[in-house]
Write a structure and sequence with these properties.
- Helix content is 36%, strand content 19%.
- The chain folds into 2 domains: 115 residues, P-loop containing nucleotide triphosphate hydrolases (Rossmann fold), CATH 3.40.50.300; 214 residues, no CATH class.
- Strand 10, helix 13 and strand 11 form a beta-alpha-beta unit.
- Helix 4 packs across helix 5, helix 7 crosses helix 8 and helix 7 packs across helix 10.
- The protein contains 14 helices and 13 strands.
- It is α/β, with parallel strands linked by helices.
């Protein structure tokens, strides 16, 4: 039925250590992320059998009797694209309720909506591990991601209209790393509010869209509440917007927003591997007088701020919003970095430094 994992050349991923720890502690591990980011390839390194549930022949066996199919399989078992056969989730739950030995099952899914742990009665038996598009520390060179959104949208119960979906994805891309009003996206994509809301939910569930929430604090007044929208892969965003690298490099606005999104892409992957419980937020005072691109919530009100500047010569002016945040929060401000495209590491002010973004993948 399934295929056995075979030895292939494998590129290590940042999330591998987290995944290995989860396999040692939990009977079932669920790996979620956009299609084609490497979920199956990574999981296949540690399993004895791979059952691809997006294959009609394999799916039919699990639909007929999922419990029997699990009993017959070799362990550890990878159930690839688990959302294709919803019955398999309940069968895995029953299996781990009977036997909680760690490392029995790995499930992958390209749809977040099917992996809501609140629907599982087996709390403590399964853990979710997020995988993101390749970060630069994982691969030297360009990241390539196929635009498979229209293929997957049907799996999250959204009526497909490829042209309208393409327009909405393009509108999101053209407002990359921004906070466009919903009305602006609807106007640009020529869709109504209901359709826009459905597409946004679908793209979020498919792990293609990440809406970074605003940070809230009683110590800061008039903070904007709107989230910051990112398409999780800048190559996908460029393709959706119909622009190429040359256009981005020669347009200051595009260059700034794509650098912001590219840097956020690196942070997202690093945090998922090193500190998966830490949340990313965006901080903006209404009217835009002060804005910090991303803040990492370290718990107990403590923050680390990040500013992204698409230039090679950072200055204290580039850190002015971080300095404002430091002065407002006092000891709760742990530190802040201005990430840039150059090579210099500079101390800009108290607890604030300028760092090359490349330090993330050039460090040893």
């Amino acid at each position: 039925m399934g295929v056995s994992s075979t030895e292939v050349a494998y590129r290590p991923r940042l999330v591998d250590a987290l995944f290995a720890d989860a396999m040692e502690a939990f009977p079932a591990v669920m790996v979620v992320g956009p299609r084609a980011v490497g979920k199956t390839t990574s999981a296949a390194q540690v399993v004895a059998q791979v059952d691809r549930l997006d294959s009609p022949d394999v799916a039919s066996v699990y639909q007929a009797d999922p419990d029997a199919a699990l009993r017959r399989a070799s362990k550890p078992l990878l159930l690839d694209e688990g959302q294709e056969v919803p019955e398999v989730l309940a069968a895995v739950k029953r299996a781990v309720d009977r036997d909680a030995t760690p490392g029995q099952f790995v499930l992958t899914s390209s749809v977040r909506a099917t992996t809501d742990m609140s629907t599982w009665a087996g709390t403590g038996r399964v853990v979710r591990v997020a995988m993101h598009p390749l970060a630069e520390r994982e691969v030297a060179g360009a990241v390539t991601t196929a635009d498979l959104v229209s293929r997957d949208v049907a799996s999250v119960d959204v009526a497909r209209d490829p042209e309208r979906l393409r327009r909405y994805l393009s509108a999101l891309a053209l407002h990359l790393a921004g906070q466009p009003p919903d009305a602006t996206l609807m106007r640009d994509a020529d869709v109504n509010a209901r359709t826009a809301s459905a597409y946004e939910r679908a793209l979020t569930h498919l792990a293609v869209l990440d809406v970074v929430p605003s940070w809230a604090s009683n110590r800061l007044k008039r903070l904007a509440k709107a989230g910051k929208r990112y398409l999780v892969d800048t190559a996908l965003a460029a393709a959706a917007a119909g622009i190429d690298a040359d256009e981005i490099l020669h347009d200051g606005d595009l260059r700034g927003r794509w650098f912001d999104a590219f840097a956020a892409m690196q942070v997202r992957a690093e945090l998922a591997a090193l500190a998966p419980t830490r949340r990313l937020h965006h901080l903006r005072v209404e009217g835009g007088r002060h804005e910090v691109d991303l803040v990492v919530d370290l718990g107990r009100g403590r923050l680390f701020g990040l500013e992204f500047k698409a230039g090679a010569t950072p200055s204290r002016r580039d850190a002015r919003h971080l300095m404002w945040l430091r002065d407002e929060l006092g000891v709760q401000f742990v530190g802040g970095d201005v990430w840039h495209t150059g090579q210099a590491v500079l101390e800009l002010d108290d607890r604030i430094a300028a760092m090359p973004l490349s330090v993330l993948w050039s460090r040893t």
